[in-house]
Amino acid sequence: MTARGRARAVGPVAAPLACAVALTGLLSVWVATGGGGTVRRMPLQFTLAAISSPRNPAGRGGPDPTAPAYLTIKNLAGPDELLSARAPAGRVILAGRGSQPLGARGQLTGLAIPGHAVTTLTPFGPDIVVIRPRAMPIGDSLPVTLTFRHAGQITVDFAVTPPGTP
Predict the structure, then answer these.
(1) What is the pLDDT of residues 45-73, one digit of tens each?
(2) Architecture of the domain delimited by 44-161
(3) Could you give the CA distance from residue 21 to residue 140 in angstroms, rounded to a whole number?
(4) Strand 152-161 with 44-52, pairing
């Protein structure tokens, strides 16, 4: 092939190739300077999220109804702290350890979540409790927004289970 023939063959390819090289270079600079954002791995994983429907729904007499929550939190990062929880079904508190009635257990202002460990919340230890919950049909799910000191706000869907079951 002659020089003139090679020039004719390369000509139509040269412009798109030059554009691709320039675009790749510009995108590389953009990502290297943080323009592309960062990928953040979720430091917390949630499993076995369930909330028991109350035995005594609000307005049906008896003591104030409560709906205890069950949750397992796997912390893949350093220590954190669960500061609060909220749900559309009612007032949510962090309750202290023990099997005593809720009033005797006390409300917590935070719950330590150790780093690189698994924390389980149940009614027999520190847990999340919905006070005087609105109707929560069994089988539905209840979104609960958890606020952590470092991980921020994370919404977890809790399965609504029959009274007294996880």
Answers:
(1) 999 999 998 866 555 555 568 888 999 99
(2) Sandwich (2.60)
(3) 53
(4) parallel
